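Retry 2 of 3 after timeout on previous attempt. Resubmitting structure tokens to design endpoint.
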């Protein structure tokens, strides 16, 4: 059983789309199981449906407005770099309303339902296993929601919840519990794919393999908080990868890892259409180079 796993990573999901396109179209890979966290959960339903053009259009036309109904960020540019600052009016308005998060992502919820139809949902349930990762904050545990165990409305909700990077996006309440971004507990669900019977796993990890770089920390308390959350998620991701590798070795599972070749962005909550289109192309090219390296490692003899 083959599985495609896509990590969390916000706007960097465009790079994962390019990698997945190469694997599906050039390598003709057929997957039985698709698992995603956060941005990965947005990608996998369309990839499972083999609808690459649709997901490409989604990821290269997304804007902040399509994600946030109340955007806590102001994106500024300095010395050719983008960074985020607090949108004081929107954040104060959230506090006045008694909300516990700085922003709201209800527009993302609407867009998920608009882009992923009930007909597509019913078609996928027949022969594909599509699983999204969510964090149950009430029970302090990670949960995995399968398309085969959900109604259409519930599955759309779980995709949305998997993407809710609190405290900057919505805190969701469902089935009596409070939920948030799956990446808070599991950024790369490799181990879960293996537990569910995968014998070969292709995992797209939206971070550079070598994390040793000088991170630019925020210049104000709000942007510093974004940086600190990024640090914590990097540690969770590293743990997930180590755990996944050990599980693959113990279960004799073939594991192929696809990292980003460089650090793509300091803030994955900034959605720049031009950059995301570039990252998609980079992912496609990188996947071809990575496959070539794998083949050369198997057969190092000169041609």
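Retry 2 succeeded. Sequence:
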């Amino acid at each position: 059983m083959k599985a495609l796993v896509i990590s969390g990573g916000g706007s960097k999901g465009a790079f994962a789309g390019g990698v997945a396109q190469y694997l599906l179209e050039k390598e003709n890979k057929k997957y039985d199981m698709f698992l995603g966290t956060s941005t990965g959960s947005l990608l996998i339903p369309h990839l499972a449906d083999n609808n690459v053009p649709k997901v490409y259009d989604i990821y290269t036309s997304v804007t902040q407005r399509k994600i946030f109904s109340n955007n806590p960020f102001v994106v500024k540019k300095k010395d050719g770099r983008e960074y985020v600052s607090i949108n004081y009016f929107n954040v104060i308005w959230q506090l006045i309303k008694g909300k516990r998060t700085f922003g709201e992502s209800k527009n993302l919820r609407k867009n998920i339902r608009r882009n992923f139809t009930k007909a597509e949902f019913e078609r996928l349930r027949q022969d594909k296993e599509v699983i999204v990762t969510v964090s149950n904050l009430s029970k302090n545990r990670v949960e995995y929601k399968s398309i085969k165990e959900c109604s259409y409305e519930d599955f759309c909700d779980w995709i949305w919840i998997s993407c809710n990077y609190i405290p900057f996006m919505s805190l969701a309440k469902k089935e009596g519990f409070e939920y948030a971004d799956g990446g808070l507990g599991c950024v790369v669900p490799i181990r879960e794919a293996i537990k569910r019977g995968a014998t070969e796993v292709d995992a797209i990890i939206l971070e550079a393999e070598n994390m040793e770089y000088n991170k630019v920390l925020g210049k104000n308390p709000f942007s510093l908080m974004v940086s600190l959350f990024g640090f914590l998620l990097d540690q969770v991701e590293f743990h997930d990868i180590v755990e996944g590798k050990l599980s693959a070795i113990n279960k004799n599972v073939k594991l192929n890892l696809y990292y980003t070749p460089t650090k793509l962005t300091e803030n994955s909550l900034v959605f720049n259409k031009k950059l995301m289109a570039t990252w998609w192309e980079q992912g496609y090219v990188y996947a071809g180079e990575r496959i070539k390296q794998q083949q050369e490692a198997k057969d190092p003899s000169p041609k």
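Attempt log closed. The mean pLDDT is 90.
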